[in-house]
Batch of 2 targets.
Target 1
Amino acid sequence: MTSAIDAPTSTTAPVRTSPARALVCRGCGAEYPLAAQHACFECFGPLEVAYDPAALAQVTRAQIEAGPRNIWRYAGLLPAGQDAAARVTLDPGFTPLVAAPALAAELGITAPVHVKDDSANPTHSFKDRVVSVALTAARGLGFTRFACASTGNLANSVAAHAARAGVPSIVFIPGDLEQGKIVTTAVYGGELVAIDGSYDDVNRLCGELVETDEFEDTAFVNVNVRPFYAEGSKTLGYEVAEQLGWRIPSQVVIPMASGELLTKVDKAFSELVEIGLVDAPADGWTVFGAQSAGCNPIATALHQGTDTITPVKPTGIAKSLNIGDPAAGAYAIEAVRRTGGWMDYADDEEIRAGIRLLARTTGVFAETAGGVTVAVLKKLVDAGKLDPAKETVVFNTGEGLKTLDAVAGQVGPTHRIKPSLRGVRDAGLLG
Amino acid sequence: MTSAIDAPTSTTAPVRTSPARALVCRGCGAEYPLAAQHACFECFGPLEVAYDPAALAQVTRAQIEAGPRNIWRYAGLLPAGQDAAARVTLDPGFTPLVAAPALAAELGITAPVHVKDDSANPTHSFKDRVVSVALTAARGLGFTRFACASTGNLANSVAAHAARAGVPSIVFIPGDLEQGKIVTTAVYGGELVAIDGSYDDVNRLCGELVETDEFEDTAFVNVNVRPFYAEGSKTLGYEVAEQLGWRIPSQVVIPMASGELLTKVDKAFSELVEIGLVDAPADGWTVFGAQSAGCNPIATALHQGTDTITPVKPTGIAKSLNIGDPAAGAYAIEAVRRTGGWMDYADDEEIRAGIRLLARTTGVFAETAGGVTVAVLKKLVDAGKLDPAKETVVFNTGEGLKTLDAVAGQVGPTHRIKPSLRGVRDAGLLG
């Protein structure tokens, strides 16, 4: 729409075109055009977005810093969203990096600890990042309806994004979902389809629907546009580095469901070094993964010295991490091994204690996934796996208000008294 | 602590000293030093912070824009918080101003409508603003314990702020509070005192405790440091103006509990004009107030043509607005009359419809107070009180996750099907 005059490029002018060049198979390396495809036609391996290195190398700190205070400041490093007017987004991201000295002290960590608090996103989980990128790519690819299978955070985010954009949505959920989780999606007014079956049944059905003619106009965020979706998680890594003053932390502790978030934060750090936006740390960085004991197939494989994931039937309170057959598990193991990290898992009691520890020491109230991460942080320190003398960033991916039941039985009033000074005195509150 | 060298003042250097000069009685104009005092010794009227006009006049747009993306960018216009290291804060503020074209269209408003979405604050309500200012002032005044009486948002915010700052807290709540609201305060680990009695009983007790020797170290955010607390609400007005490109909107619709938020947004606009940070709009601005039908003493007084508030016993689902004897009601009426505005109230069904309308058209899921505001916006348009040809900003002060029950009976799955293509087809979802 603009004229063809070649004005000199300012270093703070936003990037106008996508730096993505292809989808590449993570298994065999086969390349495909940037389209709605998530598996390799050759080997059925998962596809990942690949970029033009020259395009990435044009991105500058000044350009990023002049951008909006959300994920789109990194549009020059993402596969979609360069045209602000064409975004489908709630403008998530640039969530707080909270200094956590009291948490560090309580765990015996002498170096700084920070909490990357993604509960501050618009629908209060990191899913807003991946959904914004997926749906923006989807609209660019011509899709006119947005869909997903989900039991919680993803459903909230897709329905809210669709409402903001004025695009029809259709969210598929297991029929026995708790009412609270239904309300937080249904309130946005899209189609909400309850399936008589388990989450696995819902997922399988979505895999079938995406192949039908009737759904050819529909982008399932974590199915047919999954490669774009997954790239959204890179922004968590970019933000941490920028918020530390363009520096990569020595250690990161990241919750794992599919394992994809962990691999993308690692990828983000690598890209920043390759582009030259940050200096490569002398000792590199170390990536740690956290699962719940009720769904620990990735950590178990690592512990057993293999990278073959044996699927499990998930149990336990950390439902947002309950993916029994994690698609990116092997890649997460690769990243953790390559960087000298480790994985561990926490049981339900440890998760509850992790939520309370984080809240008490930082004022951040995390959902169960955040409890998993803090509990595993503690285990890694206690086991000598995580170096207490090195700076560490812990990722909280969701909001405690969404999983109130996890701690409802454990916390309550510390005193019950009559409404009188005597009541206060008898409770020992008047010194 | 800094040296006495008089360096030339940069326009982007942060303000180092408080511009506040005194506490002034809103009733008789008596002045008092800046201390923990909330009522006039002469006439028992409420005290308000007064500023040195010369100090305010030194604040520049460049200085604000160079500041952090939170309320503290306006430290030069607040009574406390100029020293970043001495703040007690979760760094709230600079919440999204969301364009709402679909909401406008549905209500027949032809000019732009924006939603100021304060659910994006750290504990997901506007209370984080007032608590940050109150507790920062309190620490500066020497208080070593933080307290409040509350039934919800305020309790969450005080407990979370105290946890972040590592300061003891003591929160007083009615003994019959729902468990969900107890959890969201108790999880932060401070003292939580359940009182056998109503919220009025709790409030009365706090008023007594603040006079005791044993509580002389304790700042009750909305009692003894209330004048500072109330100033935090000004930041909502500053942000709206800055986010509109340093412009005051023609019309604002604001929920009322004590009525204070409305008066402070109006005060913020006046200050910006006086300082010269924005031009005075040709037609001024118009302030509208929203209450729930279950607690409408301010709107009722306005409708009756008086400014004498007759207290009510609150009922209805908009509990965060349920103050039956609103301290700033007469001042809210003054602001609304002076600016040519109006007030109205919405019943529980209208509030539920307001929550759903906002979610469906903007992707913002508001607590009941937000439903009140949207419902009243609709009434004001329908009654011809609000000009549909003028730009309007609607304030959402809290998060839908905190009041799920309000809409839980109204929204749910749109379809229930078997996990098969036939199930999808039979539901009419396959075209």
Target 2
Amino acid sequence: MVLEKLILDGIAVANTVKEHVKERVEYLKSKDIRPCLATILVGNDPSSATYVKMKGNECERLGILSKRIHLPEETTTEELVACIIELNHSTDIDGILLQHPVPSHIDERAAFEAISIEKDVDGVTSQGFGQLAFGFSDYPCCTPAAIMQIIEHYKIPVEGKHAVVIGRSPILGKPVSLMLLNKNATVTTCHSKTVDLPSIVKQADIVVAAVGKPNFVKGDWIKDGAVILDAGYNKGNIGDVDYEECFNKARAITPVPGGVGPVTISMLLKHTVDSAEKREK
Amino acid sequence: MVLEKLILDGIAVANTVKEHVKERVEYLKSKDIRPCLATILVGNDPSSATYVKMKGNECERLGILSKRIHLPEETTTEELVACIIELNHSTDIDGILLQHPVPSHIDERAAFEAISIEKDVDGVTSQGFGQLAFGFSDYPCCTPAAIMQIIEHYKIPVEGKHAVVIGRSPILGKPVSLMLLNKNATVTTCHSKTVDLPSIVKQADIVVAAVGKPNFVKGDWIKDGAVILDAGYNKGNIGDVDYEECFNKARAITPVPGGVGPVTISMLLKHTVDSAEKREK
């Protein structure tokens, strides 16, 4: 397939995923199984509150139950872990999402690690990451999975391509690097200590921006004809990529909003239903 | 520290590690704890038999008990997994090493995954890999850990350097890529599908060869002054790097034999003692 200049429409990709999820939810309902995602929000960060609400609402739109847990700002690590362990044991819950970030006094990694692998539908545990890296995870981390879903949907060639990932977080840069590697890309992972980042990005056939800085990736960093996936989502709906500048250089690019974000949520819903289907067995 | 041309002497690094391990074994003995590594060899591959024997002998040389299990060629996956589970439950065993590769009819990954994380001193499970990737593993995979140990021993600068890893296996290329990334290198992972490998290697400040092909990396692929770590160990004691050619270009290089190999074994011994020390608590 020859690609012309293409805006990678995350809403269209998400709708395709969600349509399929909805059918599977209907089928499960006919077997008296109601998939249920527990979301945990700690504290009062308004963006986190918005994200978690969106996720809960999206669940309900597709017939997935949403158990919304809101813990106070002063929750301790121990209390949060105890809450997660209770959800791990609850037979009604198919997936657990802990909204990131949690207040800074909490050991976020300890909380993530408390989520049982069977319910880690957001793909945040180290065990889930290891399985993803080795190519057999049930629930790959949602944002990287969304990026791969967009790539697959638009049949973007990956094998033998040079992918440059900017960012190395446990839930984005690292897992997407491994997923691209498993699809036979040559992968360079860059970060804040990378020397001469523009010249490295310039080599990329595929650029993944996962750095959390608005308009960080500039147009003159981009090789003509590159594919750009912007996983950034900064204040004011601004991506990590300077869209105006990069659009002209890229062969294909995700907008923000309407790119990776909506697909991420659809992956979460899909994984929740994947998990619920295991109840049947 | 300014490095002159340097042969990275794995035997010296291993001896430093082993000296410390030996002291710790003596201390444990004084507390009536005898560290014990179980090694499992399946079938009759002569190189595997040699490697596993070396590991067992090295254990005994330092006062670590070596429980050597040799299963017949026709062992099934189920039988191997059952053997591993028994070792998981044995309170006398601190670590389990399954010699790789196992006969091809066995599901090697399933066997590796059966090793409990507490005894995965060789660092082969996906859970161990995830912990390594996130920077909190007790027992990082031994060959990558050996490479990092050599780097640390010789104080080779890593932060901000461009490291190119050739190979992406679960026990070598992938974990060493993540370990270098966690030490703030910019990391490119290459493999059989990489296009124009020489030009990518040419950019590297640090080259890790982990491809399993004798003399694969050529001198004219190497940037002047690069550091080369050769994890290859092919028939006839030949590395993955053409040593003669690459020596002239490199600032520092590991020989084969006497490079990464001996340090790998010392890491295994160290991890076994790390595990035994937990019995004290």
